[in-house]
Amino acid sequence: MNAIVFVAGAGVISGIGNNVTECLNSLRNGDAGIGKIKNLKTNHRGLLPASEVKLNNSELAALSGLLLSAPRNAMLSMVAAREALEDSGISSIRGLRTGFVSATTVGGMDKSEDFVIDFIADRSKGRLRDIINHECGNVTALVAEKIGIKNHISTISTACSSSANAIMYGARLIKHNILDAVIAGGTDAITRFTLNGFNTLMILDEQYCKPFDENRKGLNIGEGAGYVVLVSPRVATLLKRDSYCSVSGYCNANDVYHQTATSPEGDGPFAAMSGALSMAGLQPQDVGYINLHGTGTLNNDSSEGMAIKRLFDPYYPKMSSTKSFTGHTLGASAGIEAVFSALAAQQGFVYPNLRLQTPMAAFPFIPETEFLIDTRIKHVLSNSFGFGGNCSSLIFSKL
Amino acid sequence: MMKVYIRSAACISPQKTFNSTSFLDKLVTYEDNKLTCIEPDYSEVIDPRVIRRMSRVIKMSVVSAVACLKQARVANPDAIVTGTAYGCLEDTGTFLASMVEQDEDPITPTAFVQSTHNTIGAQIALLIKCKGYNNTFVSGGASFENALSDSMMLLAEKNNANILVGGMDEITDMSHAVLTRLGLYKRQPVSNINLFEAKSKGTINGEGSAFFLLANSATEGDLACIDAVSTFYKPVDITETTEQVTSFLAAEGVDKNDIDLLITGNNGDEKNDAVYSALQHSVFDSIPTVNYKNLCGEYPTSTAFALWIGAKMIKTNSIPAILNEGTAIATPIKKVLIYNHYQNSYHSLILLSAC
Fold first, then answer.
1. Overall number of domains in chain A
2. Residue A310 near residue A269, CB atoms below 8 Å
């Protein structure tokens, strides 16, 4: 077994930028990607804010090189996965066993939504090309074929923790010497399905979301894709450039409380965070920055905060929710935040938690509100919790 | 890969596989290109108030998972891993339809909440209070195989562990209508008895849920061992497919003469089945072979059903007559290979042996 796995490349597209550089600039400048819905065709336009990628489908098709008939989700995935792959330089090494582990919760749902409008009225209607990529796995396969990966293609869907589990699975495939390199992360486009789903659950904020604020009202849906390229130590030594950081710990645990709510004491989040620390051989005080799950819902932030209090009190690391920039990108969130966390571990970045006015009264800690560079940061914890009690935490460590 | 032990297995399928004392002694026949599961009484396992809100695939999966744990006498496994290509289709369809019909003002979130692909793993975890690792693969025709690989890696990472792993997919009215229009199924109704005689385009639709309790140490009563699982994607031609199979066997140190039985995924579609036929003239030449999709139909996680059969055949050292089309098979059955491909995209190999 390989003992350690390195992050050799990163790629991201989200409401705050179409690549790593653009996203980082927005994070640095405090520019949120949330705003009025412009691309998605929905009755909620103008009523519910969201963080859309600022490209329409034609522009994304051109950027990704995929056909306009492909799901928007696949285009987002393609842009970020290709950036990560090129950034890593692994294509220059011959004979690598490379995999693509991608997470998504919606698959080709945007096209399925168009299909069902005609199909419901008449089962012989609806354009078939709009339904052929409905399955989550098809989106992964479309992108894998386009970037030329065949050795391993898999798709994970565990709600909002999906891409954390993809990164974990990718790391383990390398540790078990099944693969040498893995592009791991996730993608999710905004669809009417998810927007309406979360709306019926009444957990969407009609204003810009305020993670970890006492007066938070809910989340804003976001979209995007984020991938890291994980490599074995052998591959890392063959690359021209140093890796960003290592993946030193991870843990997947179940909260066993409720299908759509996390336990008040944050049992699942606590188990995920402490499991990841234990695997990395770290103490809570070794963590320099937590990239919070921080959706902005009443339930998540209080549950996550409680788990953090239980684990870290009285020494709290710096922390923030970058969902205040990107919105909640669901199955893509842990992939996008893994990219931000890898950069944080490498360069000591601490991203601001936007719009924080009144810190939560229940907790003694306050998330950071300014962009900081703290080079003492050695370890970054990234949290992702989802429906079904799925809780996952990842730790990225400075080299 | 380190071999793992199958301590128990439970399967709900279009055949009498659940809570059955016999092993596939009589074929249940279907005449309309659609094989749907024989469903048990769910109320013995799930609270009747909860059952009403659950779609078929959730009910079938939860009940087969619980039965599997009960057989293994394991109350709480270390992890739950599921593989499902379609996820909770019925709930997805319900929410989509209500969204369209109500013009984006769907009244209830229930279908949305239950449409997420990890609902099955989550519901099992909630029911048995399993706080451990919980993961769901949705990799089309490799979903169950990925779940198996994940489980086998977990078992290699942790001592004295046991893992509940399952594969499941359901047929819904919507999906059957769509997949029929996409040309997956035979144009004329074909009885599953005659599936392999039809020699025409298309297969028959199927569904099922099968769960296994895997452990990294042996226990008396284990059904069989899984030595290895491997997948490959879209081979360019039959030569590559042959090479992939050959290198899998070589990596496992298995000579084809060591394999007592091959279980293949023939589904009655001429083009699909040509792949198996070509391999049976080369790398699989002279290995006794049985098919299984006349029993369960074609669906992306059908290999979970195949694994259930394979493990049972090893354990009982017998081949049900309905599976055997007259092949002479040497006993004891010690090594079984399952080879399947789903629409020539994902191919998979699962190697089983007697413990």
1. 2
2. no
Domain boundary among A218, A238, A258: A238
Tokens 């949120």 -> residue: A32
- Answer yes or no: is the ipTM higher than 0.95: yes
The nearest CA of chain B is from the CA of A301 a distance in Å of 20
Q: Does the pLDDT at position B81 exceed 80? A: yes
Task: Write the DSSP symbol of residue B114.
Answer: H
Residue with tokens 């809100």: B53
Question: Do A265 and A206 have their domain in common?
Answer: no
Is B49 part of the contact surface with chain A (CB cutoff 8 Å)?
no
Domain span at residue A66 reads: 5-238
pLDDT tens digits, B292-349: 999 999 999 999 999 999 999 999 999 999 997 777 777 799 999 999 999 999 999 9
Q: Which of B134, B252, B299 to mutate to test the interface with A (most CBs of A within 10 A)?
A: B134
Residues B48, B159 within the same domain: yes
In DSSP terms, B214 is beta-bridged to: B6, B163
Mark which residues 116-175 of A lie under 8 Å from B by CB. 116-117, 119-120, 123-124, 128, 131-132, 135-138, 140-141, 144-145, 150, 152-159, 165, 169, 172-173
Q: A194-214: per-residue pLDDT in tens?
A: 999 999 999 999 999 999 999
Tell me the C-alpha distance between A291 and B271, whole Å. 50
Contact A197, B108 (CB under 8 A): no
CA distances from A267 to A307, A313, A317, B80 (A): 7, 16, 20, 18
Give yes or no: residues B98 and B164 share one domain.
Answer: yes
- Mutation target vs A (from B135, B154, B244, B342; most A CBs, 10 A cutoff): B135
For position B17, which CATH number holds? 3.40.47.10
Q: What is the CATH number of the domain that holds A273?
A: 3.40.47.10
What's the domain range around B141?
4-215
Residue B106 located in a structural domain: yes
Same domain, residue pair B197 and B233: no
